[in-house]
Design brief:
Elements (H helix, E strand, L loop, with lengths): L2 H14 L2 H5 L9 H19 L2 H5 L4 H19 L6 H15 L26 E6 L11 H10 L1 H4 L3 E6 L7 H21 L7 E5 L20 E7 L1
Parallel strand pairs: 2-3
Antiparallel strand pairs: 1-4, 2-4
Length: 237
Amino acid sequence: MKRSQMMKVLAGLLISASTPVMAQEVDLVSMEVGTLRPEVQRRYDEALAATTDPSVLASLGSSYMYASEAKVWCGIAIGFLKTATRDKESLSRCEKYHRLMTQPAPAVPVVSMPEPPPRPRTAACDSPLAATFFFDWDSVVLPSNMDETIAFVTENMVPCGWNRFTVVGHTDRSGSDGYNGPLSRRRADAVAARMQVAGVSGTALTVSGRGESEPKVSTADGERNPTNRRVEVTASN
């Protein structure tokens, strides 16, 4: 086997960090010189292969540092062994860093974030009338506080369990029935459209217009009244 091929094989053994490889580790300091040389040489070759392996070079862990230290100290130990000298310091460090280099990285615990506690029910949950929007005379222009009121409705959907909304438009008695019916429906449609923009599903909305037939405040026919020009949103589950 060519040296380049051997280096690739050794690098693969290092990356796998399997248990059988670790089981072969022995105490270098206590070995005889004759059996010590191949053990130190093996560790040196594996460390050298690791320091040139792209996956080790690109890793963010300590593998490259341990491999570099093992290569240095195993190389020093080999130098001493050429004169049949067992240098305890280089042998122990060779063994230490080679073991660190080949042992599997500790598993990183997966920390799951707990689900936030559900929002408690609010006083709004006890009233079926979730919101009321008032309109100017003969107008379908949404009121200025529209978004704040819709935000109140959407924020209470989960704690209150709301999943259905009835959107009903109304007018005052200042126009004819034929005119006020469509006007009240246009007002309800405008509110429903803005609710969908805020995240309420269109399938959860039931929209209608009642014209001037259900005034909030009783008035004479033909009288303008701002309280009656409204859209009421009723919530249910």
